[in-house]
Design brief:
This protein is of the alpha+beta class. The chain has 2 helices and 6 strands, in the order βαβββββα. The two termini are 22 Å apart. The relative contact order is 0.21.
Length: 138
């Protein structure tokens, strides 16, 4: 799993218990899943369709640095299914896991549309292909 984004838990992110508000963390995860999907599917028109059971494992406190990891579980015809883990950057303690986040690719009409992707692609490889280089060679 690749951990792409880090967040610093600040006072405005806390609940009355003094720990990270779950809704704030879910907002960050939804944004991370959307950004990941936009890059993978090369389309800015995507939506979150489904988030499976959310397993909160530990509660970060003010000052903690957390990082979010996303990996592809499956490519569908017009969707991509992701898995997410959140962990404490310093201690590596797991904070949360979500087994499935389904993101849907939309056309200009706002309806689901096939994306034609079948595997994870990296921007560096796309750029290399455009420049006539072999993907992975840099």
């Amino acid at each position: 799993m690749n951990f792409h984004t880090r967040k610093w838990v600040k006072p405005e992110d806390l609940n009355p218990n003094g720990t990270l508000f779950g809704g704030r963390l879910l907002e960050w995860i939804d944004e991370e899943a959307a950004l990941y999907t936009i890059v993978q599917l090369e389309n800015r028109r995507i939506v979150t369709k489904f988030i499976s059971e959310i397993n909160f494992i530990a509660a970060p406190v003010q000052g903690d640095i957390i990082e979010m990891g996303i990996e592809v579980v499956r490519f569908g015809k017009s969707s991509i299914t992701l898995r997410c883990e959140v962990r404490n950057k310093i201690s590596r303690e797991q904070v949360l896991e979500i087994e499935q986040i389904v993101m849907v690719n939309l056309g200009a009409d706002g309806k689901p549309t096939p994306h034609g992707k079948t595997r994870v692609e990296y921007v560096r490889d796309r750029l290399a292909e455009k420049e006539g280089q072999k993907p992975g060679a840099a």
